[in-house]
Structure formats: structure tokens, C-alpha cells
Amino acid sequence: MFTLDPRLASDSYPVHLLSLCDVRLKRDSAANPWLLLVPRRPNLVEIHDLAPVDRHALIDEIGQVTAALKAASSCDKINVAAFGNTVPQMHVHVIARFTMDPWWPGPLDMTASGSPWDDAARQSFCARLIDAL
Description:
The protein is of the alpha+beta class. The chain contains 3 helices and 5 strands, in the order αβββαββα. Strands 1-2-3-5-4 form a 5-stranded antiparallel beta sheet.
């Protein structure tokens, strides 16, 4: 039975359900919209833990979400990564990057607190994202 890790649940908002993954928006990501894709399969830690059909679905869903994030944010670049060092539950980060963000062109400082979403901006962004999906 799939259960979302409590740390992922508390650090993000639910946005949309794809056929394999939950799409979630990180709470402190208003400056750089940051999505999480969490496959709804139990006991996953690594991508290779997915069944082959689910690995293919994950790649397809990453493609869908990156295109939708580009459309919804007008970002300059998108970063995709599966770190899992703090939360071992398998999840993929999909992050909008802008040439004007403070970390450009280097990696985002994942220890720095980002700017939180206000409700109106979050709802508007999520609506654009869902429309693009």
C-alpha cells in the first residue's frame, strides 16, 4: 500500500495526479517553482526499484511535467534530479530555473529557505500548470 512520506507531505502541496505519480509543489518555491513527482508505489527508494513499465511511465511523466512547468513559469531552464538523501522515498525534483535567480548558473542552494507561496499566487500557478498538463 502506497503512503506518502510525512516529510514530503508537510513540505509540499498536492497539485495533480498523473497515472503513476503525484505531482506536488514545494511550499518554499515561489521564486523557483519546484515540483516533486512521487510514484504511487509502495517501498520505492531508487528508480531501479520501479517495474520496467513504471520506469517508462515515469520518464513519460517527467517529460509531461517539464513541458507543463516551462509553459506555466516561462522559465529559462528546467533541472530534473532524484536525490533522496534526506527523504528516502523515491521522488523526482523538477525545478524551474531562471537566468536571474541568485544561484544561476550553478545548482540551487537546497539548504537556503526559498520564498513561500501566498495562496493566490500558488492557486494561479497550479491552475496554469494543470492547464498545461
